[in-house]
Structures are given as structure tokens and as C-alpha cells.
Amino acid sequence: MVYGLGIESSCDETSIAIVRDGNEVVSLKVYSQIETHSPYRGVVPEIASRAHLEKINSLLAVCMEEAKIQFLELKYIAVTGYPGLVGSLMIGAQLARCISLVHSIPIVLVNHLEAHLTVIGLENELPAFPWLGVLLSGGNSSIYIYKGFGDLQLLADTNDDSLGEAFDKVSAVLGLPYPGGPYIEKEALEYKRPKGEKNPFPKLLKEDGPEKIRFSYSGLKTAVLYYLKSLTEPPPIQKISFYFQQTAFELVVRNIKKAIQKTNIKTVVAAGGVLANETLRSVLLAESKTAPFQLYYPQKKIYCTDNGAMVACLGYHLWKEKKFVGLDFKVSPKRNFEQII
Length: 341
Ligand code: KG4
Description:
binds 5'-O-[(R)-(carboxyoxy)(hydroxy)phosphoryl]adenosine; alpha/beta
């Protein structure tokens, strides 16, 4: 049996996990800093680092106790190295270095974005590569060609706001709490669309032909703002939320179809915080049946958000490939690690 430790501290979740054989979660603890950051309607880097520092040791202690193992039984320590807030990444990195130094356990450095995709390995046998990795979170709206562990090629990216960011900004103008995703989703689910009613927001990037694959959500945010300005009555929040989601998700589906067309890859793994959205999950599921393509996304919502289990899961495969790093490893805000070497 191979026990691995996963450490995640790239943004506003502090998380530790112990995973067995790369696919079985023995213990997972996530401390969310949302309440701390919500008065600022966004993550404040300095506050995030301090909060990681305060919580990370106690989360580790609880995980070790729950797993009923000793440090010496760990075969590897997987830690998120990039991308993320550097001050926050350094807290996890330093914890990894300490445990490694004291107990001589190898460290593997994990790409946070890749870990979001491989987290499906905790719920399914990993499909054969290549995959199309669709990452929809607070910081990303991108599609990768995922060829093998550590081998990701960016196929499509956002020109401006990510999808999660759009949810958060639109929720702010609607007067909903931060982070906006779950609140907009709830409002949208309540909406009873009258038959034949037209979407008040324009189709996104309709000028793009079949070759061009990209995301852009700032136009949708502006369309919501103009719509609000045009109203003389209190805003219909449920209706706006409903059509905001419909417009935003239509672009996701269109881009996935284009990516399949362009690459002929029919295994699609969708991940990241926005995948917690039930409407998006069912839209993608329905699409996967008609398109068709093989769709994976994390079933458990805790695996959509940042967590140590996804780090330990990817770490297992890197450990098997002996991709160890020395104690002097670097962390980076950049998503392509080569950029910092
Ligand atoms: O991956 P994630 O947990 O972390 C960061 O990228 O920081 O994603 C957070 C994002 C936020 O923008 C949040 O509003 C969005 O995911 N989100 C959702 C839902 N739950 C979280 N968006 C839509 N619907 C949801 N249910």
C-alpha cells in the first residue's frame, strides 16, 4: 500500500489529504477562507497567506490522526507548486520541506491546474490519454490537450474574465453575496421561464468561426450592467441569473465541440469550482450524449474546489515516475512551470 500526503495552499483553501494508492482518500480536510475574504469580495493575498499559516499544521495533525498512520509510512509528499499566490504557495511548500527533511520522504511538485483534472481518478479509473481538460474556475477558463502526466498543451484560454470571475462580478452588481457562483445558481434555478421568452443577452463571440476557440466573459458582465441600467423597476434577479448562466454555458459547450472537432479527442474532463454548478453539469451531460463524447467531472463537489486529495492523487503518478524535487524547489504564480526555470 502506498500512502501519500497532499498539501494544497495555492489560493483561499488550506487543505491536507492522505490518499492510498493514488485513488482512495483516507483523510481529507479543507479549511475555506471564504468568510475571511468575503468583506473584500475577492481574495486578499496577504490575508490568505496568514490564514494558511494559522491553519495548516492543525489540519495536518487531524489528517494524520484520522488516517492512523505515522509520517514514516508516507511514500511521498505532494505539494502544489504552481500556479497560485506565491505567499500562499510558500506556506504549503515549507510544510512539505519540513516533513521531507525530518523523515526523508521525497517531494513531488504538483501543477494545481493539472491536479484539478486528475482528481477524477479518485472516483473512476483514469481514462487513457489524451484528454481535453476543460478548466472552469475563479482564475481560469481554458481548454488543454492533456497528453500525459506533466504534459499539458493550452488549446483555448480567456481573453479577459474567467467564468468564475464573471459569476462573482455579476453577483456583485445584483447585490448577491461573494463568491457569486452558488447564489446565482440558486436564483437561476428558481426562474420559471415564460414560453417563447427571448434571452436579453447577446450570444458571446458569435463572430468567431469554427477554428477560433477562446473564452471571454467581460462582454456578458457589461451586457448585464446595461440591462440593469435600462430597467425602471427592481431588477428581476432570477431572470438575469437564468439568462446569464444560459449565455455563459452556451459558450462552454460551443468551445468543447470546437475543440473536439479540431483535435478529434473525445475524452473530455471538466473541472474547477464552476463545475459545482448543477445546471452546467446537466448541460454538459446532455451534450456528451448527443455530440457524443466521453465526459468526466468530479461527482463530489468537494473535488471541484481546491483540495489536498487532488494533489495527492496526481502526486501518486508523479511519484511512480520518480519526478522528485529537491528541498530547494521553487513555487510560482505562473501556470507553465518552464517559464520560471
Ligand atoms: O476552483 P475554485 O474553487 O477556486 C479558484 O479558482 O479560486 O473556483 C472558485 C470559483 C468562484 O468564482 C465561484 O463563484 C465559482 O467557482 N463557483 C461557482 C459555483 N460554486 C463556485 N460558479 C457557478 N456555480 C456554482 N455553484
